[in-house]
Amino acid sequence: MGRMNWNRICAAVLLGLAGMAAAKAHGQFISNSPRNSSVIKTEAVQYLFPEQVSVPAGKPSAVTLHFRVAQGLHINSHTPSDDFLIPTDFSIPDGMGVRLGAASYPPGTIISLAFDPKTKLSVYTGEFDIQARIVATPGNHLVQAKLRYQACDQNQCMPPKTINVPIDVIGK
Amino acid sequence: MRRNTIVLIAVLFILAVFAWAGWANWEYRKQAAERLLAGAAQGELVPTSGGDAMNYVSPLDGKPAPNFALENLSGSKVALASYKGKAVMINFWATWCGPCKVETPWIVELRDKYAAQGFEVLGVDTEGDDLQPGDKAGWAKAEANAGKFVAEMKVPYPVLLDGDSISRDYGGLDDLPASFFVDRSGKVVAASLGLTSESDIEGNIKKALAD
Question: What is the mean pLDDT of chain A?
Answer without folding.
Answer: 83
